[in-house]
């Protein structure tokens, strides 16, 4: 009886052994992830500020920050700009262009893949601020693009003032397409060549092979990459801030830019944290949408 009891106690101790190995990871998650989120939620209900009367005494203001946020017309403009930037540079730009580059590189020789891969990867490995400065120089009034246009006899264009959103979208596409290219390249290499060869024997065209075999076979990879690229693009700040500063006016002011301006330019940290939670909420909604799509 005693041996049976000792054995059961030993089994219970053994069943909880895995928890000891997870304690460091759990502690790191609590300190650097859970605690900051809870603190952000708390501050979003306060008048936290860096200057003025509010900086002297922290007060709980309830949902005043959220009421102010949804009544602020700049917030609606920022949400709209964020969606345009997200769809243009992530959904259409990086996803489609990365897939096309990976598809064109499929079955090509090693030399060709190395050269093209290196060219595309150059934008990805470049730091975001360096990428922004390069593209700013390219699109500026006296930049490379206008030099090419004027050499062909056309009038120069003030790209950063005429089409500022297009310039930051193109900059983000150049900076992030390589990630999608690498993901799709690995997925396309896993598509069984026997299926494609059998389809060719049956008389299928390249378009039919692409739409009926290749894309359905890697649909989970497409959805996963879309989710990762979307969340990454949703938080882009340095690229836009260095190129346009959110301007002219509010034409390129996305939610991260607006949040920064309210928190660290206007010193309204409470209001800024409320905007950050709106950005977090949008990211959660999009993530749940992609996860649901993957299950279906």
From TrEMBL:
SUPFAM superfamilies: MalF N-terminal region-like, MetI-like. GO terms for cellular component: plasma membrane. Signal peptide: none annotated. It is a multi-pass membrane protein. Keywords: Cell membrane, Membrane, Sugar transport, Transmembrane, Transmembrane helix, Transport. GO terms for biological process: transmembrane transport. The chain crosses the membrane at residues 21-45, 79-103, 115-139, 159-184, 222-243, 269-291. It comes from the Bacteria. It is found in: Cell membrane. Residues 80-290 form the ABC transmembrane type-1 domain. The keyword Membrane applies. InterPro entries: MalF_N (IPR035277), MetI-like (IPR000515), MetI-like_sf (IPR035906). Pfam families: BPD_transp_1 (PF00528). Belongs to the binding-protein-dependent transport system permease family. This is Multiple sugar transport system permease protein. It comes from Paenibacillus phyllosphaerae. The lineage of its organism: Bacteria, Bacillati, Bacillota, Bacilli, Bacillales.
């Amino acid at each position: 009886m005693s041996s049976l009891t000792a054995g059961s106690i030993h089994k219970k101790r053994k069943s909880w052994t895995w928890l000891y190995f997870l304690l460091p990871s759990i502690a790191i998650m609590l300190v650097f992830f859970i605690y900051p989120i809870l603190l952000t939620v708390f501050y979003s209900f306060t008048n936290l500020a860096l200057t003025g009367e509010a900086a002297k005494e922290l007060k709980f203001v309830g949902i005043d920050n959220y009421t102010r946020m949804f009544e602020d017309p700049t917030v609606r403009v920022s949400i709209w700009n964020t969606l345009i930037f997200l769809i243009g540079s992530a959904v259409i730009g990086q996803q489609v262009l990365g897939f096309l580059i990976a598809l064109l590189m499929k079955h090509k020789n090693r030399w060709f893949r190395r050269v093209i891969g290196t060219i595309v990867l150059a934008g990805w490995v470049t730091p975001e601020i360096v990428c922004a400065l390069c593209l700013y120089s390219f699109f500026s009034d006296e930049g490379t693009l206008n030099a090419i246009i004027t050499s062909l006899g056309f009038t120069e264009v003030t790209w950063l003032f005429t089409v500022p959103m297009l310039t930051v979208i193109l900059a983000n596409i150049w900076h992030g397409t390589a990630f999608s290219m690498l993901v799709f390249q690995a997925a396309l290499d896993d598509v069984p060549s026997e299926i494609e060869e059998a389809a060719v024997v049956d008389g299928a065209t390249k378009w039919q092979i692409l739409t009926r075999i290749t894309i359905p076979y890697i649909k989970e990879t497409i959805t996963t990459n879309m989710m990762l690229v979307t969340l990454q693009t949703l938080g882009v700040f340095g690229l836009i801030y260095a190129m346009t500063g959110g301007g002219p006016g509010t034409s390129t002011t996305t939610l991260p830019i607006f949040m920064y301006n309210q928190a660290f330019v206007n010193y309204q940290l409470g209001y800024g944290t409320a905007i950050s939670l709106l950005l977090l909420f949008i990211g959660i909604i999009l993530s749940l949408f992609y996860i649901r799509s993957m299950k279906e």
